[in-house]
Design goal:
- Helices cover 48% and strands 20% of the residues.
- It contains eight helices and five strands, in the order βββββαααααααα.
Length: 186
Amino acid sequence: MLSYIIGKVVYINTITITVENNFRGFQIFTNAPKNFEIGKVYKIYIHEIKNDFEETSFGFLTLMEKIVFKDLLSISGLGSRTAIKILRKNVYELRESIVVGDYQSIIDNYNVSNKLGQQIVINLQEKYSNMPVNSTHYKLKKDLQLSLIKLGYSKEEITLVFNNLSFESTSAINELIEEAIKILNK
């Protein structure tokens, strides 16, 4: 079983990449094909699923993504396709939501059902509880999300803001709201 592969990306589509290593091409499902460039060499952490029905490789740029993917697969009712879809968003934000028990944020931001969002928190909260969480960033994100909801913005618009806004540059909620509105008015 592979732990990782180092190879050159030779093909990219919306859900997979093909990596050449030792004159062999490996098709790998990934959470973020847009993070790869054709012709570049990458170290890709691999999780393989082999059973009677499928033989599939999933690849991640970071070990943390691979670990969270495997943890998500341990949840009853959550398959590999749903887990990879969840990891298309920021894995560290997902981990923060799990640690603080914010299943509603998981439901809203990762497009999962109520039951599955709660199950993710229940199954993984204790396991992730010893991992450090930047509570200041988490609070800012929650405050910004609530402010934008009160201003009448939709979930899709808020997701657009979160994907394009850096929380590192400021700790003032007013500045974040101004930046969010600028992003939404583009």
